[in-house]
Design goal:
The chain is mostly helical and about 260 residues long. It folds into 2 domains: about 10-75 and about 130-260; about 75-125. It is built from 9 helices and no strands.
Length: about 260
């Protein structure tokens, strides 16, 4: 993923919608095949594909959002605290550039920049290098997007981790992640439980839960971008919106549980 254009809102919206459209279609296409010929190989493949798009889309969406904020050239002082922390994280890397004990110029520069950010002079335009997909300094899934990593990504980009996410953490850990890891390591047996089995209905329920989370996450990022909720001055305006998104996700989960109730 390399961003070549300035990220305006319409561009961000196009990227997030288009990228999710093909991912969702791939998942749906494979499930349609599995419904006609329910084999263990196909069902395992769906788990692997679902995880790949879960991790890939969350990562791309988060980086695209950061790119949008940076390209809008806001002052660090105007942004929410998470962006100041990102700047400090970037500065801290500079002290590691020199391994010489006889040259402390990097350390002196770092102290100066920390003092500048820590004081009242935060009038510099934010600068973050996020154009490279290989750069894991900010958004790092550790190739295992578990609930803990997902929560951390929320903190980095300044979103609120929902109670409804917490309510589904065990489901994601025990069914999507554990089984994806088992398949990836070549294990014949999967982690099956009372509420999950290697059959099409369980797979479809897993798909619907993950899709609900992904689309809720996407919609929240789009709203934060459209309404500039990443600005300190607008932070107080997010309360009603976050409650709406929480309720929307809760309703989606209840509908899924009802649909797949045995």
């Amino acid at each position: 993923m390399i961003f070549l254009e300035i990220m305006v809102y319409s561009k961000l919206e196009d990227i997030l919608i288009e990228d999710w459209t093909w991912r969702k279609k791939e998942i749906s296409d494979l499930i349609l095949i599995a419904e006609k010929e329910e084999s263990k190989v196909l069902l395992k493949s769906i788990i692997l594909l679902l995880y790949a798009h879960w991790e890939g889309y969350i990562k791309k969406t988060s980086k695209s959002y950061l790119k949008y904020v940076v390209d809008n050239k806001h002052k660090v002082s105007d942004l929410t605290e998470n962006f100041r922390a990102i700047c400090l994280k970037g500065l801290s890397k500079e002290v590691l550039k020199s391994s010489s004990t006889l040259n402390i110029s990097n350390e002196m520069k770092l102290i100066s920049k920390f003092n500048e950010l820590g004081g009242l002079k935060l009038n510099k335009i934010i600068q973050i290098d996020i154009d490279s997909d290989r750069d894991k300094s900010l958004i790092d899934t550790h190739d295992n997007l578990n609930p803990s990593v997902f929560r951390n990504i929320h903190e980095i980009i300044g979103l609120s981790y929902k109670k409804q996410y917490e309510a589904r953490e065990k489901f994601i850990e025990n069914h999507l992640l554990a089984n994806r890891n088992s398949i990836g390591h070549g294990s014949k047996d999967l982690l099956l439980a009372e509420d999950f089995d290697l059959e099409i209905m369980s797979i479809k329920k897993m798909r619907d839960i993950i899709i609900s989370i992904i689309e809720n996450f996407r919609d929240e990022i789009l709203e934060y971008s459209r309404e500039s909720y990443f600005l300190q001055s607008n932070l107080s305006k997010t309360t009603d919106f976050l409650e709406l998104m929480e309720n929307k996700l809760e309703a989606s989960f209840k509908e899924i549980d009802t649909r797949y109730k045995v």
